Every structure is written in C-alpha cells, then in structure tokens.
Prior knowledge:
rod-shaped; conserved putative lor/sdh protein from methanococcus maripaludis s2 fold; alpha+beta; RND family efflux transporter MFP subunit; disordered N terminus; coiled coil; six-stranded antiparallel barrel; efflux transmembrane transporter activity; CATH 2.40.50.100
Amino acid sequence: MRKRWPLIITAVSLAFASTACSAKETSSVQEEKNDIKTVQVATVKNESLDAISNLSGTLQPYDETIVSFEVGGQILDTNVKIGDSVQKGMVLAKLDPTEYQLQVEQANKAVLEAQAAIKSAEAAIGSADAGVQSADAGIQSAEANIKAANSRIHSVQASLDKLNKGAREQEKAQARLAVERAKENYKKISADAQRIKALYEEGLVSKQEYEAIQLQLSNAQKDVMNAEQSLSLLLEGATQEERKQVAASLEEARAGKEQAEAAKGQAVASKDRALASKNEAAAAKERAVAAYEQALVAKEITEFTLSKTVLKSPISGVVLEKFVSDGQMVNAGSSIYRLGRTDQLKVLLPVPDKEIKEWKVGQEVKLTLYDQVKKGKVSKIYPRTNANTGTISVEVVVPNDKFDWFPGQVVKASRISSDNNGILVPVEAVISNGDKPYVFKVVKGKAVKTFVETGQLIDNKLHIVSGLKEGDKVVVRGAELLFNGDSVKATEEKRND
C-alpha cells in the first residue's frame, strides 16, 4: 500500500485548525453538552484503496454506423427520425423504384427471348436429324438398286453371250428356270410395290422409297422380258434383231446402274447437308443457352439492384443523426442516417501512461453521472500513447438497459479493485487536536469518541488503518459540537457508491 504522506499532513493540518476553532466555540456551551444534537452519519464500508477519481470521458454509442443506399435515386420516403429506436432489418427509407423496375422488366423479356431461341434451335436440330435419317434411307435404297443393276448387267451379259454361242439342252432348261424365277421375282416386287404405293399415298414412306420400289418393279419386269427373250433365243435361235435387243437391254441395265449410283451420290450429299444443318443448329443452341444464362444473370442483378432501393437497418439501436429529406436526390454511398447501439455505451478514459500497468481488461470501473452511478468494465486498452497528452486510452463499456444515459454526456470514472480494499471515511469525520486522531461513532444514540490510526488520503477520504470496522456509523457532519457521551439524533448521509 503506497503512503501519501503530503496529503495526510495537509488533511491533518486542516483538521487541527478546525479542531482549535471548535474548542473555542464549545467552551461557551459547556453547560449544554448533554442536550440531544442532530448529526449526519455515514456507515463504514470496505472500499477500494486504488480508486482513481480524476478521470473523465464522454459517453459514446457502443457501436455506430453510417447507413447509405448502394444505388442512387430520389428518396421516396424516410420512415424514422432522430431519436427513434430501430431493429435490425427494419426499413429506414425508400428510393423511387420506377427506373429499376423497368430494368427488371427488360431483363425478364430478354430471358423469354433467350428461351424462345433455345426452343427454335432444338426444333432445327430435330429437323436436321430427320433429314439425316431420310438421307440414310436413300443411301441404303440406292445401294440396293446398284446391287440389282449389277445383277441385271451380269444376267443380260450372260444371255447375250449364250445367244451368240447357241444353247444346249441344259442351258435351255436353265433359261426356262430363269424365266420362272424372273416371273416370281416380278410377282413379289409387284406386291411390294402395291403396298409401298399405298403407304406413299398415305404419307407413311418417303418419295425416294416409292421411286426406288417402282424402279425395282420396272427392272423386274425387264428381267422377265430378258429371261423370256433369252429362252426364246435358245429355243428358236437368235436373230440379228434379237441380238440387238439383248444388247440394248445390257446398255439399259448399265444405265440403271449409273442412275442408282447418281441417286446414292445425291443421298450422300443430302446427308452431308443435313449434318451441316444439325451442326449449325447445335451451335445456335449453344449461343442461345449462353444468351439465356447471361439473361438470367442480368435478371438477378437487376432484381438485386431493385432490392437496394429499400434501405434496411444493419443493427438494432437508435437514430443518432439524419442527413436527408423526402424527395431529395442522392448518389450511391451518400450518408442517410447515423445509427448507434445505446443499450450499451462506451467511454475512453485518458489514463496516464505511468499508471496503465494497474489497468486490466475485465476490471470493473465505477462511472458517475450527476447523482447516478453505474458499473462498467474495461473492454480494451489501446496499444499506443497519445503524443500530445502522454496518456493511453482505456475503453470502458457500461450497460444502459434503461436508456437513461446518452451519448455526449461527460462521466467521471473510478477504477474498482477487488484485491486492495480498506475502510475509508470522509476527511471531515476525523478530528485531531494535537493528540491521536479520533472520530465519533454513534452507538445506541450516543456519541462515542474513538481513536483511530489513519493512512493515506484517497479521493478526499482517509484510510482508517485501525479503530473502525465495517458497519460502524461515524459522524461526518456536526462532530465539532460533540463531546464524548453526548446524545445524538443521527441522519444517514447519502453517498454515491
């Protein structure tokens, strides 16, 4: 415990002077010492011996923020005013949303257009797929016709060769069999041609398939004629005219092959065009999908921007300041309100750097505002010294549940220590006339002179090292008129703890 002897000497000297004066005055009223005297007393308590009473600071909101719109526009409505309490998420103000609503509508239209483009591209892909399938069927039909033409060419060539050589009985029998086979083949193809014709008339097969079966039917009919001619030649012997006819059939068969090959080439080209169309449609779909995704992003952005025309409170607190009026044009980022949390307040105390080691985060601090006292706690000790004052700022947070303290008010602060306590009494309660200092305790309505041992002077109070205990009542007003044993009427002194 540090001794503050200069302060004690000063206090004791004042007490001596006061006592000397009181001795002169009380000599004239010696005969009235047994009268009941009215005095003011204080109850002795254990208090911190490290209290610091010369610190003060200005109350501030525990947390404060400037709120502003993230977009510009004309203020349509301000819902709160200075001093109003607000909750987190509460609407504070609104901008005219007309322009931003139009942007949202345009974005919605772009989304619909992109969706339509996707559907159109998908339809084109479907059409191209159908074209590829039709071309594949044409290629297959043309290849079948080429194969049939090759067969006819071989058959007619064989007939012509036989015609030129003459026929044997075995060859004549084979020729008859060829006629029968050609007729059977013609009959079968004729039935297929009738069926495909009916399907074609109903639109169930393509024109290429219809033309292909008609060509096969014509070729089958020619095969019958060729087979019959070959048989006739074998039986009757070929004339020059007949040889010419067979030669003509051979040329016709070769022409049919060329026609089938040309049809195949056309079908292949058609397939290539269909594949190219499909690729183009697929690319168009990719572009449409990309446009759709961009349109969705644009829509989200415009909807988000529209939502920013409503300003909501980021915290629960009180409106400390308002910067705008209804109808005013503001830019993005312009200050609209200043909000602060006042259910708790904070104060920065300028602690001399030589005393900062006695301060710890979490310590209790007594804050006094007029006749009100609240207890706060040290929440932060700043890491640097103020170059102008040589002090270090200590932040103290104090509850303000009743909202009866306000930012801007100046409070006095005393640090409360729980490990260095003692009995403190007001300096005016201690009397010294050159002997050992004493106080008057009030015991059962009587003034009892009690000698005490004093220590250091703290905040205009003397530390009583011995002579008093917690709970004793000592006279703090009117002691100069008392004698030991006087009857007293005591009133309790009001103290700010």
